[in-house]
Design brief:
Blueprint (H helix, E strand, L loop, with lengths): L8 H4 L2 H21 L4 H21 L5 H20 L7 H19 L4 H9 L10 H10 L1 H19 L3 H10 L2 H18 L18
């Protein structure tokens, strides 16, 4: 019988495919901007086309292209900001601010004992808030949420000076390097931490152990 504690958190959260899909449209934006005479509009069109193509491929394969749809919407919003300000580095402003907000949200969720990793996984598994009534699982989710805080803080620390200095090439390069590769590392690390934080004999995150008095 398979040990459910060893179940992959990466597969539940979308794994490499979803994270890679989300990183390609921004790369297409920069490629379009470079190839068509630093045109922000051309970059935006390239990004949207890239997202649509990936979405169609995922749909044909029977997969849900949610990450692609969300990424395309972010690309459109980022392009509109860059078009409004006339500064191509502002295409990355939403990415920068979203990482600041995410770091604060994940850290705050741990502080108030509603770790977002538990909220996300519990929602995906249809557990609602049952996971939170399991003291061991609540503690494990709190510990395993810290790698997520770390990835957002790292991006903010890298992107902020580059954005302030209008280093578009390095923003694009490190945007790719710190997107799906870092996301995959974060998922793998948080999954490992989650398993290690659960006590021996616990059935895993799919099976919260709710005390009778709390059920």
């Amino acid at each position: 019988m398979t040990d459910v504690r060893q179940e992959s958190l990466a597969s539940l959260l979308g794994g490499r495919g979803g994270a890679l899909d989300a990183s390609l449209p921004p790369l297409a934006f920069v490629a379009g901007w470079l190839l068509w005479g630093h045109s922000i509009g051309a970059g935006a069109i390239a990004a949207v086309v890239c997202g649509v193509v990936i979405g169609v491929v995922r749909f044909v394969r029977g997969q849900k292209p949610r990450a692609v749809v969300f990424s395309v919407l972010l690309v459109v919003a980022a392009a509109l900001i860059a078009l409004y300000t006339g500064r191509v580095e502002d295409f990355f402003l939403i990415q920068l601010l979203s990482n600041v907000a995410s770091a604060l949200a994940w850290a705050g969720s741990i502080a108030v004992r509603w770790p977002l990793l538990g909220v996300v996984v519990g929602t995906l598994l249809g557990q609602k808030t049952r996971w939170r009534r399991d003291p061991a699982l609540l503690r494990a989710y709190s510990i395993a949420s810290w790698p997520w805080v770390g990835q957002y803080v790292l991006r903010v620390a890298v992107f902020t000076p580059l954005w302030l200095d209008a280093q578009v090439f390095w923003l694009a390069t490190l945007r790719a390097a710190l997107s799906w590769p870092l996301q995959i590392v974060c998922i793998l690390v948080s999954g490992w931490v989650l398993r290690k934080a659960l006590p021996s004999g616990h059935p895993g995150f799919r099976h919260p152990q709710v005390p009778e008095s709390a059920s």
